Amino acid sequence: MEKVEKIMETDLTYLEAVEKYPNFPKFIILKLDLYRRGLVHSEEVTEKFGKYPGPIVLRDGTSVLTAAGECMPDHYTTRLYDDRLAIFYNGQFIEEAEFSPKPFFYGKKTSSGTPMESIGMTRPQVLNIWTTQYCSFWEGGNGCKFCSANVFLKERLKGRESLLNMRDLSEIVAEALKEPGRLSMINLTGGADPKGDEPFDSELNRYIGILQAIGENFSSRRFPSQLLCCSMTKKQVKRLYDETKALTYCADIEVWDKELFKWVCPGKEKFVGWDNWIKNLIDAVEIFGKSNVATNIVAGCEIVEPYGFKTADEALKSNFEGCEYLAKHGVAMMGLVFRPVKNSPFHKKNQPSLEYYIKLTKGLHDIRAAYGLNADLDDYEHCGNHADSDLCRID
Per the confidence metrics, is the pTM higher than 0.90? Predict the structure, then answer.
């Protein structure tokens, strides 16, 4: 039987993949490989654009979030090419690119003195609000094994304790909306908090308060928004829908296979469990509607040694079965690229090949399309983090 290592040994470069898959959008291939191998900015680029210049935008509008994670030895680099930003691989020019312009509200402060950029991350069209600096799953070693959220958030949000001030959040969103056409989506996320009369009541109450404060800026009953949180019961999701203007709900299962879920996500298994996670997603469709409930897998965790699948075909089969099962019930399952993040249990673990991600990306998209599911609120215009939903533009 083919070993996990073989998935890496037969890896293709970006240019080889473009040649082998001529009908697959080349910019999506590049996006996948930039996530996989990593991207390092040269000194001349950081001198011109700053140490943290933000997301990359490719020539066709594809956005690439240069996410945290350890780069492969043969990572990509950015350099200036005729004074323009360019991406190189092993010294070879690959593509021109741009950095997403910083929003106009950067550098401004709320009435309480909170720096507005302390909301967290921004993407080309998305305001991404981190609501808390701590994930309770890490207590007792129950954190998701691919994640380093507590270390990442502690460093990123250092000295920004006022982030949860509801008035500040409302003012930040109001200021962001003054830039015409810039935002198409507001995402909320944060660490897990299983406390409450029912597990996650505390987390739910926090999100409801935040969404209500943000909702003051919108006259419509719903506004383009997505809550990324832990799996909640039908009763809790009903509260979320009735008491806020949230438009979509996303509870990330992270890995589809039931046994791997227990290993990769011990906190989610302890407080919810795989069966309940699936049930809660399907129940949420009755409340938010078809295509307005989503979940993500961190694609690649399913092959991590020693318990992951031993062949690419086995791993793909599992993911496609999960995507189809959920699609039948109106839930959109999408994929994120696994990065071996420092300070996580999966640091330095093996990643799938580029070819694996190309097959997975096409398969997830095709399954959702076959069941009439759209990814309008997670596509390239509203999220930019999923290669498979980026394919929606060619439907």
Answer: yes
